[in-house]
């Protein structure tokens, strides 16, 4: 049982990344509507993605450290819940500035999901760790495709 049980955290990491990826992926299909709603030219649409990934970049190391101190599942689950709330606030934004701010916050909180979920791969025996990491990372791409 231990042999298969060690893969449960990996399955959880994959599922967390599928949810996170679906949130991130849903943005792309809505971008033109968002820009039309607030009257912003398409040339500035890339700023929304840049705001997201700036927040995401800044939060990677702090959330990895926090996950080691508080526990991976606490950080991942809190991140998903907070991301859900910010997704709502982002969706109900009415100004260009609000959109950029909420997208930055979403990116920042996204760091609480991806890196700590990759750490779950270390629960698997050493010779299968690379495979486990690959599975966890693929979850994000699956979610993005579904989003």
TrEMBL record:
Positions of the Major facilitator superfamily (MFS) profile domain: 9-147
Matching SUPFAM superfamilies: MFS general substrate transporter
Assigned keywords, A-Z: Cell membrane, Membrane, Transmembrane, Transmembrane helix
Keyword Zinc-finger: no
GO molecular function term, any single one: transmembrane transporter activity
Keyword Transmembrane attributed: yes
Cellular component GO terms, alphabetical: plasma membrane
InterPro entries documented for this protein: MFS, MFS_dom, MFS_Efflux_Transporters, MFS_trans_sf
Membrane topology type: Multi-pass membrane protein
Annotated localization: Cell membrane
UniProt protein name: MFS transporter
Organism expressing this protein natively: Caldiarchaeum subterraneum
